[in-house]
């Protein structure tokens, strides 16, 4: 940690951020730039920001030695989280004195000191800013704590402006406007009504096409069986089978989205991640399998999770990549490990993802485009289910733009 904060770097960096905002930038690009600016100025090894919504917290931005935790859920009822969200707004803590899993992993990577400041809006916490330091760093000074507090206040101001924040669909700023239980109940009812309307709209839209196709081919076979050749009959039967499979998959998604837990899974257990991934790639739909390439290191450790769910996760991620990229373009599947987690990456060369959508994409029924003329079909359930499946295994999943265009979906599971 430097002897004093580099204020010249802070002022220069803050000037760039203000220019970004004045130019129309907002949300995650600005937040990430702020963290990248603050890290060297504070002499930190890494920075992270956790956004809190009614459903819990999530790391939505991180830099340096903390970059690997982007997308990580932070349960609001965790004792360590509860401790940090109460008491002094700014404090210095040691990660090796906290008991939650994320703190244990940070300490295991040598990030033992942490300056935390809550970002508060109208007396309610919308997030927390974390500056992380190695074990040999000096105790943060009052001056440095003040800088982290100031940056936390700047982020809270961004939330007050609603500049593409919050990133999650559950608006954490709702709490600042919910004065009393009646208004909160009304907001909950509005959310339930909106989800019901979305459910009806999405399911009717997605059911209409396969049902229409099945009925059309079935009527053709019934009315013109004798006049059809063998090849035409087989083609009709093949299309009916394909569309029936689509309906079955849609039904599975809808049922799974309503379930509290992923059906059929017991406690997470060690399994051969590399071999399971190879089998899952081999079983992808033919059109996606032809586009996919797989890279797996020879020394990949075993993962701890539900082996049978990896095929579901991979299929959803690859299907998503295929849907939002040009036909025939490559889909790159790779695996890696960093000592504590095993990761799966699915990369495409498609339309990419806007920074303000990297979290919204995991909402139930959410679509990047909407209405009757949507360019991309789908229920908006795939990524929602992927996140539920992965987080039930103590892992996490997130999206990021791919360098050169496209999107990278990354899933992480604990390793043995």
From TrEMBL:
UniProt keyword Transferase, yes or no: yes
Annotated keywords: Kinase, Phosphoprotein, Transferase, Two-component regulatory system
Keyword match Zinc-finger: no
SUPFAM superfamilies: ATPase domain of HSP90 chaperone/DNA topoisomerase II/histidine kinase, Homodimeric domain of signal transducing histidine kinase
Protein name (database record): histidine kinase
PROSITE patterns referenced in this protein's UniProt entry, alphabetically: HIS_KIN (PS50109)
Subcellular localization, as worded in the UniProt entry: Cell membrane
Enzyme class: transferase
Principal location class: membrane
InterPro entries (alphabetical): HATPase_C_sf, HATPase_dom, His_kinase_dom, HisK_dim/P_dom, HisK_dim/P_sf, Sensor_HK_Regulatory, Sig_transdc_His_kin-like_C
Domain Histidine kinase: 202-416
Record-listed E.C. numbers: 2.7.13.3
Catalytic activity: ATP + protein L-histidine = ADP + protein N-phospho-L-histidine
An annotated Gene Ontology molecular function: kinase activity
Organism: Micromonospora fiedleri
């Amino acid at each position: 940690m430097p002897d004093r904060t580099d204020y010249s770097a802070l002022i220069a960096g803050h000037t760039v951020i203000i220019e970004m905002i004045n130019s129309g930038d907002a949300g995650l690009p600005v937040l990430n730039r702020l963290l990248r600016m603050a890290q060297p100025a504070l002499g930190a090894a890494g920075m992270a920001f956790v956004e809190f919504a009614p459903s819990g917290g999530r790391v939505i931005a991180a830099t340096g030695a903390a970059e690997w935790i982007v997308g990580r859920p932070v349960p609001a009822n965790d004792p360590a989280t509860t401790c940090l969200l109460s008491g002094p707004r700014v404090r210095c803590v040691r990660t090796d004195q906290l008991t939650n899993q994320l703190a244990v992993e940070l300490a295991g990577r040598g990030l033992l000191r942490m300056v935390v400041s809550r970002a508060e809006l109208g007396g309610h916490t919308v997030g927390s800013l974390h500056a992380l330091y190695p074990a040999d760093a000096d105790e943060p000074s009052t001056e440095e704590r003040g800088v982290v507090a100031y940056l936390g206040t700047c982020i809270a101001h961004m939330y007050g402006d609603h500049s593409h924040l919050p990133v999650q669909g559950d608006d954490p700023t709702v709490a600042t406007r919910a004065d009393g239980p009646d208004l909160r109940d009304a907001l909950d009812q509005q959310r339930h009504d909106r989800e019901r309307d979305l459910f009806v709209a999405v399911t009717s839209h997605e059911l209409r096409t396969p049902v229409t196709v099945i009925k059309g081919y079935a009527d053709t076979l019934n009315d013109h069986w004798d006049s059809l050749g063998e090849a035409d009959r087989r083609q009709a039967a093949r299309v009916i089978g394909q569309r029936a499979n689509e309906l079955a998959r849609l039904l599975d998604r809808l049922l799974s989205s309503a379930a509290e837990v992923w059906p059929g899974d017991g406690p997470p257990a060690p399994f051969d991640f590399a071999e399971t991934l190879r089998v899952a790639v081999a079983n992808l739909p033919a059109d996606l399998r032809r586009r996919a390439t797989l890279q797996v290191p020879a020394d990949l450790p075993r993962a701890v999770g539900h082996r049978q769910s990896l095929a579901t996760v991979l299929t959803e991620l690859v299907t998503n990549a295929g849907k939002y990229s040009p036909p025939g373009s490559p889909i790159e599947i790779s695996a890696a490990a960093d000592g504590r987690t095993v990761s799966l990456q699915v990369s495409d060369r498609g339309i990419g993802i806007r920074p303000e959508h990297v979290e919204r994409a995991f909402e139930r029924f959410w679509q990047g485009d909407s209405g009757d003329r949507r360019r991309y079909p789908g229920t908006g359930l795939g990524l929602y289910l992927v996140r539920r499946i992965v987080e039930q295994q103590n892992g996490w999943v997130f999206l990021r733009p791919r360098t050169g265009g496209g999107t990278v979906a990354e899933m992480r599971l604990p390793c043995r």
